[in-house]
Amino acid sequence: MKEVLKKLRTLEAEMEEAENQSEYWMEEEHLDMEKSNSYEAEADRLYQEVYKMHNQVADFIVSLTSGQIDKVTAMLMMRQRRSDVERILEMA
Question: What stretch or stretches form a coiled coil here (predicted)?
Answer without folding.
Answer: 1-28
